[in-house]
Specification:
alpha/beta, FAD/NAD(P)-binding domain, Alpha-Beta Plaits, 5 domains, four-stranded parallel beta sheet, 17 helices, flat
């Protein structure tokens, strides 16, 4: 690891700063899919007296209806009283639905609207990022004026990018009815992601492009699509490469949401602000890659508009990378979250190794692995393992040999191909570099023999080689000699069926020690077994055609 720290050269860094941003000036994101909204201008105003006052001032092409939740009705505006019914509001711009009362009940009523202005005391939609077309305001005069301004012009067709892409094949959410990862569901500030059995579903109309789902996804199954991760990585690489080639030193990458970029104070020329759609769309793989490509520090701008769920998710990600950096001997503050006013004070004193030369890639785990390999190679300590906090996307599993029967239920549900069975020998192999710590293997294990162990195995070759977790001698069929199970599996079966009425005879118990083919043949030849399988009181079958 390098220990020299060249002093800043303001004039040279200023020229390098200009050259760096000139190198990425032509970077335009590849067009993503489009999500379309259509509004006919029907506004549902929810509240009391203030709602009626506001609705009376909404002018064409908008037209208002009031859902009166308290107070007395006044003439002049279409109005529906809540009348002590339960209220459920769902939808988005152009397609809101307010359900009053229980469906099927005589007093049930449904109101449709394109736009909703909510003046109730508590927001009816509590998402950190509410859907387009929904606003919550107080009944204060200034807020009512702001409401009129917000809905002005909200008639016609509106478009936004489809911000996400999803690959169900590598999703670790669920397998075979077992629940695994739900990080994206819990972290989405728009509450746009739901579970639908063995996969998740993202409602594109509710998605606001917060990007937190992509940040917390351990496998890369859900990723930011506008711009794509590969495009952001390529832009980052070109920026740092041009800065270095122009003679700049001690660069600091400042990731900021586009809406917060203008609020940054004047920055020293070695601080390179990289505006992204949303800060949470940039995850730990890009932070670490920035360090590997020569940045001496990465600053994440904690702007005022960041949703609480996104801030919490970034905090958890920072906990993981701080553990990684500390474990490798680097200062954790090499990646930090700062409010805008403190960004200019970034020190760039991380003393990181020389810049790596690997190319940008859109594969999340591959990119993080390349960056971590480079940082590990540049340390003086070369730790074998770094312990990580619970919930980290890296780690191993521990198998209790006293419980494991090598049933291979874990291998059938692993979405990352981290677990595999031996070819002809009862054996469980593990590829730690693939493990995303989703917990599906532990959930699927009938013997509760598996525990997760979050950590990072640093040595690249060891991480990619299979580890033998458990192996047992095969149990061979007592009839034909073919191996078909393990001794422990057979012992467990025999133990559990000790009192079973169908397995009291020695022949029936011996049949449990046969392979599938021999078991069928023996059962057919056993009159007692065939008799016990017939319906009581009717030992004759007739063919009625």
């Amino acid at each position: 690891m390098s220990t020299d720290q060249p002093t800043l050269d303001e004039s040279r860094n200023r020229r390098a700063h200009t050259a760096a941003f000139a190198a990425v000036a032509d970077a335009e994101p590849t067009p993503a899919g489009i999500v379309t909204y259509r509004s006919r201008g029907k506004v549902l105003v929810i509240g009391g007296e203030a709602a009626q006052w506001l609705a009376a001032r909404i002018e064409p092409p908008l037209h208002a209806e009031v859902l009166l939740i308290d107070g007395e009705a006044e003439p002049g505006v279409p109005l529906t009283p809540l009348a002590q019914r339960q209220l459920q509001l769902t939808g988005h711009l152009g397609a809101f639905t307010a359900e009053l009362g229980d469906r099927g009940h005589y007093n049930h009523q449904r109101l449709d609207a394109d736009i909703v202005v909510d003046l109730s005391d508590t927001p009816l939609i509590g998402a950190d990022l509410p859907p387009p077309g929904y606003w919550h305001f107080t009944s204060e005069p200034a807020d009512l004026d702001a409401a009129l301004l917000a809905i002005d012009g909200m008639v016609g067709t509106f478009e936004k990018p489809r911000y996400f892409a999803y690959d169900a094949d590598i999703c670790a959410h669920s397998r075979a009815g077992r629940s695994g990862c739900r990080r994206c569901i819990d972290a989405c500030p728009a509450e746009a992601i739901v579970s639908i059995g063995e996969r998740i579903e993202v409602n594109p109309n509710l998605c606001q492009g917060g990007g937190t789902c992509a940040t917390v996804c351990p496998s890369g199954a859900i990723r930011y699509a506008y711009p794509g991760p590969g495009e952001t990585a390529d832009r980052l690489r070109r920026l740092l490469l041009a800065y270095r080639d122009a003679g700049g030193n001690r660069p600091v990458i400042v990731f900021t949401a586009a809406e917060d970029a203008e609020g940054l104070p004047p920055l020293p020329p070695n601080l390179l602000p990289l505006a992204v759609e949303e800060l949470a769309s940039v995850g730990h793989e890009l932070w670490l890659t920035a360090l590997a490509w020569g940045a001496q520090q990465v600053v994440l701008v904690d702007g005022p508009g960041m949703p609480p769920r996104s801030r919490n998710a970034l905090g958890e990600q920072l906990g993981v990378v701080h553990a990684l950096l500390s474990g490798m001997g680097y200062p954790p503050e090499a990646i930090c979250l700062l409010p805008p006013a403190q960004v200019a004070a970034a020190t760039a004193e991380s003393r990181l190794p020389a810049a790596a030369s690997f190319a940008a890639t859109s594969d999340k785990r591959q990119l993080a692995g390349l960056a971590l390999d480079h940082l590990w190679a540049g340390t003086s300590t070369h730790p074998e393992v770094v312990a990580l906090p619970a919930g980290a996307p890296y780690g191993r599993i521990r198998v209790d040999p006293e419980r494991c029967t090598l049933c291979m239920g874990c291998t059938s549900v692993c979405p990352a191909k981290a677990l595999s069975a031996g070819d002809e020998v009862p054996r469980l192999d593990f590829y730690e570099g693939n493990c995303v710590q989703c917990g599906l293997c532990a959930a699927a294990c009938p013997e509760r023999a598996i525990e997760l162990d979050p950590r990072y195995l640093c040595e690249p070759l060891t991480r990619r080689r299979p580890q033998r977790l458990y192996e047992d001698q095969p149990f061979c069929c007592v009839q034909c000699g073919k191996p078909f199970a393990t001794q422990r599996v057979i012992d467990n079966i025999l133990g559990k069926l000790v009192g079973h009425a169908m397995f009291q005879s020695e022949r029936a118990r011996r049949r449990l020690q046969m392979c599938e083919d021999c078991r069928v043949v023996d059962a057919v030849q056993d009159a007692e077994a065939m008799q016990s399988g017939l319906p009581k009181g009717n030992n004759n079958y007739s063919n009625n055609g």
